[in-house]
Write a structure and sequence with these properties.
heterodimer, A: alpha+beta, Rossmann fold, five-stranded antiparallel sheet, 9 helices, 21 strands, B: mainly alpha, MetI-like fold, 69% helix, EC 3.6.3.20 (chain A), transport (chain A), hydrolase (chain A)
Chain lengths: 375, 298
């Protein structure tokens, strides 16, 4: 059982470069936290501060009630998997996995038991006598995981562990790490810039930008209710479409004057929130823009004629690049249709599922629909 | 019919060129020139060694003849036995080996430890300190000779091996530099991983640093061996007791004030040189690597 509290943590380099600002997070036992954000957002720095490889400039890192700020990394009982695996090249797979246990003066039999067990979980039994250079990328990654597993540490840290693998292997290892977490239930903090990894693996996602947390939440909540335009644009692929415009008379009017009527409840909620009239940014996911079908019950579709700029067949679906007025958009539609560039299609916007953000700050308008989610 | 068409086809005549105008020919010619030059260079470099060898088997009379002979009249291999018996060379060998081994151990471990610190342990003033260490390389050794002698005299270390051995345990700028360069190529993540796994810097150095820098350590070991084995000035300055003499000092018995027994001196020198030559043959790779490291290449 472990409980981790990160309170008001900041990291400043050379007194003026801030890498992490006022980071607050509580991590519960068994959590799989994914820190995600573009490069330079401070996610790796945050991880290294938890590891003890970077000093915490300000704030408190508490683990099971004990302040860890000044505890050296070797006494933190935290295992880490590095981006480049950081396997010791001169040691065999067995010795690599046994190193931490040897350092902690475990008995030989205990070491053997643990290493063999970890090797079995990871399918490395046949490679224990090999040196890392005689292994493939995926196998090295497994050894790196094995090194963490044998320690039975309180907390696992993983710093972009899949970024050196090719796409297919990454896909496979992603599932394996998830499986491993389900099996071991070790609390994990995982850093990545890949939103797909974040969405598929996390129990909770922490989205960061410029050293500041943008949103913390379960993958689905973050996807369905992004706190601001940054989160909306970052999570999800292809990214959410944003249109600037304004709200007037229960309609969203784009900057080009195209009118998209709002569902009654939404219009009223916006009015109640003080956005009944004035500039807002509308966000809508590509899958919520469709070729106009007859509206099903409860749906509120606004349809607009648009010209096809490019249509990309990805296999199961087609990505349709078009414009709403002068603003670019991507729609995700069924791939049954053969659409040609220049063709006009009628696109329907599911306004019930559209998101609205403050035009200036980019923050989500609180319309009461998030009430159901718990953060 | 077939014959006719064959005859009708215009013949492709090869242009007449001399062999040395073809690419292959030129390459061969270049090869020949290279070999000749290399052979000439090798003969030039080996000639002193040859001169030592022939002198060592000549009689003293033949050594003094003019013009000198490049092929001895008689090969007196017994000179070698006489040389070895002329002084307690067994003892000198043991003495020299003792000093050399201690110096090699000191140089390899201490310099490696210091270099690890400079490369992988961040601390305030690290770069400044490293610059100071490097600057000691700019001071010619002879400048510090007298103060050093005075220092060792005050420590009452004269006529002992301390002045020859102890300094090797305090690091040398050149070796530190060489090993630090090598350590820089080891990724920091490796050190960090070991830190997280519970190793202190000392253990990281011992378990990861040392094994991964083996090639550079071999270079340091060879250079130190060479230096200590061939050191003449150090023992000459600090050692007076004949029982403490090294091989290099021992060879002096053949150099009298009036005359020098060149044949014995050469025989002795060749014997003393032998371990160094053998070492070179086995560790040539590391010698060259060492020179590469010096020039900043990899």
């Amino acid at each position: 059982m472990v409980k981790i509290e990160l309170k008001n943590i900041s990291k400043t380099y050379d007194k003026d470069v801030t890498a992490v600002k006022d980071f607050n997070l509580e991590i519960e036992d068994g959590d799989f936290i994914v820190l995600v954000g573009p490069s330079g957002c401070g996610k790796s720095t945050m991880l290294r501060m938890i590891a003890g490889l970077e000093e915490i400039t300000d704030g408190e890192f508490v683990m099971d009630g004990r302040l860890m700020n000044d505890v050296p990394p070797k006494n933190r009982d935290i295992a880490m998997v590095f981006q480049n695996y950081a396997l010791y090249p001169h040691m065999t797979v067995y010795d690599n996995m046994a190193f931490a246990l040897k350092m902690r003066k475990f008995k030989k039999e205990e070491i053997k038991k643990r290493v063999t067990e970890a090797a079995k979980i990871l399918g490395l039994e046949d490679y224990l006598k090999r040196k890392p250079r005689a292994l493939s990328g995926g196998q090295r990654q497994r050894v790196a995981l094995g090194r963490a597993i044998v320690r039975d540490a309180k907390l696992f840290l993983m710093d972009e562990p899949l970024s050196n693998l090719d796409a297919k292997l990454r896909f496979q290892m992603r599932a394996e790490i998830s499986k491993l977490h389900n099996r071991l239930k070790t609390t994990t903090v995982y850093v990545t810039h890949d939103q797909t990894e974040a969405m598929t693996m996390a129990t909770r996602i922490v989205i960061m930008k410029d050293g500041v947390i943008q949103q913390v939440g379960a993958p689905k909540d973050v996807y369905d209710y992004p706190e601001n335009t940054f989160v909306g644009g970052f999570i999800g692929s292809p990214a959410m479409n944003f249109f600037s415009g304004e709200v007037r008379d229960g309609e969203f009017i784009t900057a080009d004057g195209i009118r998209l009527p709002l569902p009654e409840t939404k219009a009223q909620a916006m009015k109640a929130a003080g956005y009944g009239e004035g500039p807002v940014t509308m966000g809508i996911r590509p899958e919520h823009v469709t070729l106009e079908p007859p509206a099903a019950a409860g749906q509120s579709l606004a349809a607009v004629d648009s010209e096809v700029i490019v249509s990309e067949l990805t296999g199961a679906e087609t990505l349709l690049y078009s414009k709403l007025g002068s603003q670019e958009l991507i729609a995700r539609i069924d791939s049954g249709l053969d659409l040609r560039t220049g063709e006009t299609v009628r696109l329907a916007y599911d306004m019930e599922l559209a998101h609205f953000f403050d035009a200036r700050s980019g923050d989500r308008l609180k319309l009461g629909e998030e009430a159901a989610i718990s953060v | 019919m077939v014959k006719q068409t064959a005859a009708a086809r215009p013949k492709l005549s090869k242009p007449k060129v001399s062999h040395f105008e073809t690419i292959q020919g030129r390459r061969q010619a270049l090869n020949v020139i290279n070999w000749v030059l290399l052979a000439a260079g090798s003969i030039l470099m080996l000639s002193p060694l040859w001169w030592m060898l022939v002198t060592s088997v000549k009689t003293m009379q033949e050594v003094m003849t003019y013009p000198p002979t490049f092929w001895p009249e008689s090969w007196n291999w017994s000179n070698y036995m006489k040389t070895w018996e002329a002084a307690p060379f067994d003892l000198y060998t043991v003495n020299t080996l003792t000093i050399t081994i201690l110096v090699v151990i000191g140089n390899v471990f201490v310099n490696s430890f210091i270099a690890y610190g400079f490369a992988k342990v961040p601390f305030k003033g690290r770069n400044a300190l490293f610059a100071i260490v490097l600057s000691t390389m700019m001071i010619p050794g002879f400048v510090t000779l007298i103060p050093q002698y005075v220092l060792f005299a005050k420590l009452q270390w004269l006529n002992t091996y301390y002045p020859l051995v102890i300094p090797a345990f305090f690091g040398s700028a050149f070796n530190i530099f060489l090993l630090r360069q090598f350590y820089m190529t080891i990724p920091d993540e490796l050190i960090e991983a070991a830190k997280m796994e519970g190793a202190s810097h000392f253990w990281i150095w011992w378990k990861i640093g040392l094994p991964l820098t083996k090639p550079a350590l071999a270079t340091v070991a060879i250079f130190s061996f060479n230096g200590a084995w061939n050191d003449f000035l150090g023992p000459l300055l600090y050692v007076n007791d004949e029982n403490l003499y090294t091989l290099q000092l021992g060879l002096q018995v053949f150099k009298g004030q009036m005359s020098t027994q060149w044949n014995y001196l050469m025989a002795g020198s060749l014997l003393v040189l032998l371990p160094v030559i053998i070492l070179f043959f086995f560790f040539q790779k590391y010698f060259i690597q060492g020179i590469n490291l010096q020039s900043g290449g990899k």
